[in-house]
Amino acid sequence: MVEPELGARKVAVLRAVVEEYVRTGEPVGSETIAERAGLGVSSATIRNELAALEELGYLTHPHTSAGRIPTDAGYRKFVDSLPPGGRLRDKQRRAIAGFFAETMLDLEEVLKGTTQLLSRVTQYAGLAVPPTGADEVVLRTELLEVGNALMFLVIGQQGRVDRAMVDRPDDVDSEELGSLDRTLTAAFRGKSVVDARAEALKRASTAKGIERDLLVAAAETFGVLQAGGATHHVLIGGVANLADEAAHWRRETVRRLFEALEHESEMLELLRDVTIDQDVNVTIGAEHPQTGDWEASIVSAPFRAGTTALGTVGVVGPTAMDYVSVMASVRAVAKRLSELATELDA
Amino acid sequence: MVEPELGARKVAVLRAVVEEYVRTGEPVGSETIAERAGLGVSSATIRNELAALEELGYLTHPHTSAGRIPTDAGYRKFVDSLPPGGRLRDKQRRAIAGFFAETMLDLEEVLKGTTQLLSRVTQYAGLAVPPTGADEVVLRTELLEVGNALMFLVIGQQGRVDRAMVDRPDDVDSEELGSLDRTLTAAFRGKSVVDARAEALKRASTAKGIERDLLVAAAETFGVLQAGGATHHVLIGGVANLADEAAHWRRETVRRLFEALEHESEMLELLRDVTIDQDVNVTIGAEHPQTGDWEASIVSAPFRAGTTALGTVGVVGPTAMDYVSVMASVRAVAKRLSELATELDA
DNA sequence: CGCTAGCACTCGCCCGGGTAGACTGCTAAC
DNA sequence: GTTAGCAGTCTACCCGGGCGAGTGCTAGCG
After folding, report:
1. Mean pLDDT of chain B
2. Nearest alpha-carbon partner for A219 in A146, A171, A152
3. Does the CA dihedral B63-B123-B256-B296 come out positive or negative?
């Protein structure tokens, strides 16, 4: 199916509907648009346009005598029709500038703050995915006795750390442990986490006893480093703002959303699919198979160091969100983060 | 003010009101109680008791012709009147037993799972506070170059890890770094984190330049280890269940709750105050100054290794919660955790 | 041919009144 | 002290009518 090209006025009308509906939360009628959109045509003409837009699937009616509200497709069209760029409100600009004024060195910390920032600026919930560590290199490994268990610790070149615990059998003395430690260090130091993980798994398949357990544990830690960051893989901030918003939603929708937010793997998949190499990306309502029918949209943008993509920041909110403002905020934050990361990397 | 001793029948009536209200969510009338509580008295007698209980502040009316609902004080009285012990439903027992059947070594991981478990079993949200590391000892410290920054890494005897990043000035060569690393190691290894922190701060006050920065960063990491665990200090699971429940609440209440859940320090303070040395503890509604008027209750219990308290697990839900079942679940989970921790510690 | 004015029509929302029902509180009897 | 009965109160629910917003259509105009 060929995407039909809309006339300029249809686009303007659609835009007016989206903006008005987002602003007020009420279905919007032809009169309102005629008055406010400044198109210089009467409400009757608008009505024709509205009927046409409805025919095309961009708008609906809750009922006969109500105004129009955008469909998911309508929001999509609206977003796609936006001029690139987009302006920040002054307050938002100041908030963003202020936040990044303090130098922060630990990226994970910065990102945590970033989710809060995004939430504060947009009134929805902020998201961030720390860099994947695909190109992370094993700087150091350590095998330590901790209580009556063993801890395998790995430190990546970019500062990521993870650890795994392994049961300590009674028949292993500290001499043997020392030797194991040296073996492990020799095996993995300097390798990329991807290679290290493969190597660990390969060795584990032939090893046995405590050595096997350790190799399995090691493989797991390399996997974690590769996935990016020690514990939490998707950072979420400002859920309270979202909960506020969600008060109007269908019950099932709210549950669905919170479940998704809690299951990092799900969010991760969503954000990964969504953010490939574009600037700002928008997923509206049920567009992504992952989202089911959840009435929420995600606005996200990647940040980079130099030219390599590091991670993603974004915002989750209702489909009826202020896309223009949110997109501008997300873009600005991603840009600042990229600058920061590039600088750190230099 | 002397706490008045209620008659046995008043207690029974109060209990009936709480149980019925929690079950149905509807205000409960005298008739219902007369039928169901099996007290062998007529509804008129119950009415007298209800009036008396209302007079005492344990019940209210939403309006004249409605049944009674418990006040916070009513829930409190109810909880206090519960026999110690309390039974688990079979399904809950199985779920809890099943969860702890798999041995898990990393306590942080266990606790994360525990919050999910508690949520699943109770239908509210699960909480866990990892052990505070007050008696944690510095096993090892490392100073590493990471990109163009420095990372100070500390490993505790109990397996906790934290790190801090410090800007690397241009005029520091790697020889100087090596010497700094040795100094730091010598200064802190083997010290308790509390002492280490104090020492770091003391030295920082006289040092300057990069050394000062490092000492400040080190103090921070020791503080984190003392507070318990690397990044997140309060683990929360099953928020979706709670969001479901919260659909009926006042808007402001929901916002308040989610804000509290997001701000770890707030939750932490709440849970710390609440869980001193008791078995299962219940905070109802606005009983705690921290909670404002939030219509939510927290059921929590400490877990121990041997006799020393380690951390806390609990559940957040509406004041109208099934206290009997939740308390039994929290108690059972805390007990299992204690067994697990004691075993690990041995 | 596109635009507009006007108008009939539709339909959800709001309002008031009336009613049924759920409880209470009281009183009088047991 | 307990109970039955009854009057009183107040809410939730239902119902119908009127209002008004907004549409869709048609006829006329530039």
Report:
1. 87
2. A152
3. positive
Q: Which residues pair with A298 in a beta bridge?
A: A283, A316
pLDDT tens by residue, B56-106: 999 999 888 889 999 999 999 999 999 887 788 999 999 999 998 876 777
B108-134 b/e (C-beta count within 10 Å ≥ 16 → b): bebbbbbbbbbbbbbbbbbbbbbbbbe
Dist CA A313 CA A121 (whole Å): 14
Give the HSE-up count for residue B78: Cα atoms under 13 Å, Cβ half-sphere.
Answer: 31
Question: A309 touching B, CB under 8 A?
Answer: no
pLDDT at residue B277, rounded to an integer: 65
Report long-range pairs for B181-189 (Cβ below 8 Å, ≥24 apart). Answer: B181/B142, B181/B143, B184/B141, B184/B143, B184/B152, B184/B214, B184/B218, B185/B140, B185/B141, B188/B138, B188/B141, B188/B154, B188/B218, B188/B222, B189/B138, B189/B139, B189/B140, B189/B141
Per-range mean pLDDT, top range of A157-161, A301-305, B106-110, B304-308: A301-305
A126 in contact with nucleic chain D (CB within 7 A): no
CB B214 within 8 A of CB B180: yes
Give the contacts of A213 (CB within 8 A, at least 6 positions apart).
Answer: A166, A167
In the structure, how far is the CA atom of residue B10 from the C1' atom of nucleotide D2, in angstroms? 15
**Residue A155 contacts B where some CB pair is shorter than 8 Å:** yes
Q: Quick one: tokens of A83?
A: 């001029």
Residue-averaged pLDDT of chain A: 87
Average pLDDT of the residues in A35-45: 85
Residue A127 is encoded by which pair of tokens?
């998201």
| Predicted pLDDT of residue A2 | 47
**B137/B183 Cα distance (integer angstroms):** 18
Smallest CA–CA distance, residue A216 to chain B, in Å, is: 14
pLDDT over 80 (residue B35)? yes
Q: How far is the CA of A68 from the C1' of C17 (A)?
A: 35
Task: Report the C-alpha dihedral over residues B240, B244, B249, B255, rounded to 10 degrees.
Answer: 20
According to DSSP, the residues that pair with B154 across neighbouring strands are B141, B162
Q: Give the count of beta carbons closer than 10 Å to the beta carbon of residue A29.
A: 18
- Reported in sequence order, the residue ranges of chain B that DSSP labels E, i.e. its strands, are 59-60, 69-70, 125-129, 138-146, 149-156, 161-167, 235-237, 281-283, 296-305, 308-318
Containing B95, the helix (H) or strand (E) segment is: helix B90-101
Of B193, B179, B198, B255, nearest in space to B226 by CA: B193
CA dist A217 → A39, A339, B278, B305 (Å)? 65, 36, 37, 25
CA–CA separation, B241 and A254 (whole Å): 10
pTM metric for this prediction: 0.86
User: Which of the 48-77 residues on chain A come under 7 Å of nucleic strand C at their beta carbon?
Assistant: 48, 63-66
What is the structure's pLDDT at A116? 94
